Amino acid sequence: MKLAAYMEAQGLDDAAMAARIGPDVSPWAVRKWRYGQRIPRLGMLKRISDVTAGAVTAQDHFNAASEARAPLPEQSGAAA
């Protein structure tokens, strides 16, 4: 489950999710993770998984980040 979907289902905003994860987490960081703009560090991935009872996994963050990236434009012309 994506972090955004979990937060919506639980009725959490960025500040509330940050508070659940820990006092060293800012709402701004949660916002970046939520929209796939950044991937949390390993220890933080574990904490997110713990506070969501495994509903949001490390793989969910990697999937969200890859979906957020725009596809590369196709190159024209064939290689000779």
Features:
single chain, 56% helix, DNA binding, Cro/C1-type_HTH
Task: Write a brief structural summary.
The chain has 80 residues and is mostly helical.
The class by helix and strand makeup works out as mainly alpha
Q: Main sheet, how many strands, which sense, barrel?
A: none
Distance between the termini: 44 Å
DSSP summary: helix tally: 5
Quaternary status of these chains? single chain
Strand content: under 5%
Helix content: 55-70%
Task: Tell me the domain tally.
Answer: 1
Shape by Cα distribution: globular
- According to DSSP, the number of beta strands is 0
Uncertain regions spanning at least 5 consecutive residues: none
Order of helices and strands: HHHHH
What is the gyration radius calculated from CA atoms? Answer: 16 Å
**What is the residue-averaged pLDDT?**
87
InterPro entries: Cro/C1-type_HTH, Lambda_DNA-bd_dom_sf
GO molecular function, one term: DNA binding
Domain HTH cro/C1-type: 3-51
Protein name: HTH cro/C1-type domain-containing protein
Description:
Pfam families: HTH_3 (PF01381). One of its GO terms (molecular function) is DNA binding. With 80 residues, the protein is an all-alpha fold. It has one domain (3-67). The chain is built from five helices and no strands.
